[in-house]
Amino acid sequence: FWDNKAALRVSAVESENPGWIDNQTLALKNINDGSSYSLRASLLVQPVSDFTARVTVFEQHLRTTGGNSLEAVGAAATPQTPPSNQFQSIGNNYINNTNLPYEEDNSLKYGALNLAYDFHWATLMSATSYGRFGIHFTQDESNANLAPGVTYGDFVSSLYGQPIYMKGDQVEYVHKFNQELRLTSDAGNTIFNHGF
Length: 196
Fold this sequence. Notes:
Radius of gyration: 27 Å
Strand content: over 45%
Number of helices: 1
Helix content: under 10%
């Protein structure tokens, strides 16, 4: 468009992830299912033959409603003398019985701007980008071991005299910004005799 001076490309993908673990306590099936999608758009503009500008944005999102952990016989009560079947799943089934649901939300967002100008003896390029990765998850901490044979849920419940469930809620973010300037000589031209 714009008299062939600009072009736009947009793409999108969506998928569903089937689950295979059940939570019998909450009467839920396939608790580790989820969904994901990604979006990408790129705009290229060239108002004159020597100058180009490209803007790109990208987003990816993944959400799951249960982890991929299974309940096993374990050795929490006797860590010094673990049973021979400590790694065997409970009831030989794919189950993870928690009293609170697990959720995880991952997101990746990215934006970039590339500018380039051709001087016909060298090309000056500027590349700017910014990205953010975020993760937010909740999980049931009630069955985490405080001591051999004693969970946090057991301990706190004994203090209150009634069943107590503990929920962990964690949020993490990572931000990253990049800026690059580059001057590249055309073939046969020398800008610097010595690099640095």
